[in-house]
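Give me structure tokens for this 324-residue protein.
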Amino acid sequence: MEIILKAVSKKIGYTQVLDNINCLFLDGKIYGIVGYNGSGKTMLLRTLAGLVIPTSGTIDFDGKRLHRDISIPPSLGLIIEKPEFLSYMTGLENLKQLAAINKKVSDDTIKEYMRLFELDPESKQTMRRYSLGMKQKIGIIQALMENPDTLILDEPFNALDEKSVLLLRKLLCQRRDEGKLIIVTSHHKDDIEAICDEVIIMQDGTLKKPNELEATPVNESELPGSESISQNDTLSDYRPMVFVNDAFYGDSGKTISELPANVNSIGTITNTVSQSAPLPEENFYSNNCPTGSEIYCDDEIPERIYIKLSSLDNEEYSIYERID
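Here you go.
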């Protein structure tokens, strides 16, 4: 497999999300794409997967032009952001539904993958009750199970335990050695360094090799999550939110039990302080959020933060959104 991008750009409204990207991806390699929040990593993967049509430029898969000769890339395994499944079905039932589309993989193979990731294929537990890590494993399995020629994986290591991280690294390296083309993003430097043959950095919607980056000092305003949290923000700048039927509404600080995929931890609450104290880390306080609660920023919604209620037995997160 060979993927060629020529002058690929994507503009949404007045925002240039991807800017004149030229790149060649070859089989038998693992490519790691890294960059700050909002740099365009996920949009690039969506575009490669055919989910987004570029404003200009071309993408060719082995000489076949995407959106002209083919509507989606051939033989593709894909994870984009947080995997979603039918919540009233079990993990096995969801995977069998997906396998029925192409009819390339047997039930036995699906069960083998589930056991490999320490999921019980015979369990009657529906995915409504799956943890974030369990759902991520199902997402990984659906991407791998048909042995596709190309893998495009957005944050595949998200929410995985250490054993599963090591297993996934091993499986990806095996696929590379079999001649597959693999593109991954990750916020974790260790994952990228452990498996990637080539690292490409997204910067302001463009791709750069490490030696092409400008040697400019990094400041706090450029760090992941900084676009969502200001050093001068206070609790009074935020209002509690509640998740109801796929929409957020102002309310009295109700919670969700699972974080979205594209979030980053920016610290923990270590002191109980006044509501006029600045964010982030030890200076954020809420009556619902005890000392030790972890704070997360949202890559996709910069004005939103999540605070884990660490005193509860089950994971719960309070949602806050900046008041305009």
